[in-house]
Specification:
By secondary structure, the chain is of the alpha/beta class. The protein contains eleven helices and 16 strands. Helix 3 (84-91) runs parallel beside helix 4. The longest helix is centred in the first third of the chain and has 13 residues, at 3-15.
């Protein structure tokens, strides 16, 4: 039996729910008997049955003596649904093939142990790297309580995100901009600095055809300078905006912003009098936010990179140059850094998106 091919199918199923599982993992499952897939299932949204339960229910009595293939260890605890490991045992399968152990401390091997105790053969670690990559948001959130942070930048070949007058429309191609909407649909929060809001008045929503998850907008705005007429404060479909300010922000301004159906997140000031980004990430984790896409600007991007808060980087390079030293740089940093101290991407990948080139990579192993 080709377990890797079957696991690839489980991962394909799991991806169908990308963006809809909130802080929970994406899981796909297959029931295989006599070398043939007889049923499939995937976890679609919180509160619904888990992937393995859906697949086993579809298989019915045919599951007896079959093999269950899924990308994540079956849970062994009560949550919003009963323990999946118990359901797997009752189904009569003889073998379970899993991509990875569930890093949730409430599970973390206990599901496998329960299955083995019931006489079920367990094989784990099939395409484990791919399984962890798929659920990288969940892995970070459940292990350290902070969201996975993706930094997205769009720049000219000479590293400029806007001309000297502040105009950035459009550096990247239409295809690249559509790709960014897909990125937004896969995260819980889209974050920008107040400078971006004041300059562009963005919606930060997903504007694609079909059904897509809409992320919450988050503005890092230390002094609550956000205009009450900002577009992202007028979009109730997004569930209300998040505004991060310092504890020195004006209380009257805070009340006015909150009256716009926005949630204000307060942090202490950092050494520069700005929002403490590490504290902000901790608070987002406490709000059960597992993924954040930061779309700039240069100051916020630089601060996140300097503080080691970026997990994943997506940079779009447009085939054009501004050749103007007064145009806007891609990232602004405050720390003196020599070349040996440069931040390095792991396993960078390059792909063509329209006329642009997208470089993606991670700053650490998942």
């Amino acid at each position: 039996m080709n377990y890797e091919a079957l696991m690839m199918r489980a991962l394909e199923l799991a991806r169908r729910a990308e963006g809809f599982t909130e802080h929970y993992p994406m899981v796909g499952a297959l029931v295989v008997k006599d070398g043939r897939i007889i049923s499939e299932g995937y976890f679609s949204k919180p509160g619904e049955a888990h992937a393995e339960v859906k697949a086993l229910e579809k298989a019915g009595s045919k599951a007896k003596g079959a093999t269950l293939v899924l990308n994540l260890e079956p849970c062994s605890h009560w949550g919003r649904t009963p323990p999946c490991a118990d359901f797997v045992i009752r189904s009569g399968v003889k073998k379970v093939v899993a991509g990875m152990m569930d890093p949730n401390p409430l599970v973390c091997g206990k599901g496998f142990q329960k299955l083995r105790s019931a006489g079920i053969e367990v094989k784990r670690g099939v395409l484990e790297k791919e399984c962890r990559r798929l659920n990288r948001h969940f892995v970070k959130y459940i292990t350290i309580g902070r969201p996975w942070v993706i930094l997205k930048l769009a720049t000219t070949l000479d590293g400029r995100i806007a001309d000297r007058f502040g105009s950035s429309r459009w550096i990247s191609s239409e295809q690249a901009r559509n790709y960014v909407h897909k990125l937004r649909s896969k995260v819980q929060v889209v974050m920008v600095g107040i400078g971006t809001v004041l300059k562009d008045d963005p919606l930060l929503s997903v504007r694609l055809k079909g059904k897509h998850h809409q992320p919450m907008p988050l503005v890092v705005d230390e002094n609550l300078r956000i205009p009450l007429c900002a577009k992202l404060l007028k979009t109730p479909a997004q569930g209300g905006a998040l505004i991060a300010c310092t504890d020195k922000a004006n209380e009257a301004k805070r009340r006015r912003v909150e009256n716009k159906n926005a949630r204000v997140i307060e942090t202490s000031e950092d050494k520069n009098g700005l929002v403490d980004l590490k504290e902000l990430m901790k608070k987002l984790g406490e709000m059960k936010i597992a993924s954040v896409l930061c779309e700039g600007g240069a100051e916020l991007a630089g601060a996140l990179l300097e503080q080691g808060l970026v997990d994943e980087l997506d940079i779009f390079y447009a085939p054009k140059l501004l050749v103007d030293d007064k145009s806007r740089a891609m990232v602004k940093g405050r720390i003196e850094r020599r070349l040996p101290q440069a931040l390095n991407l792991l396993e960078p990948e390059v792909k063509r998106i329209g006329t642009d080139f997208l470089i993606t990579g991670f700053f650490h192993e998942v």
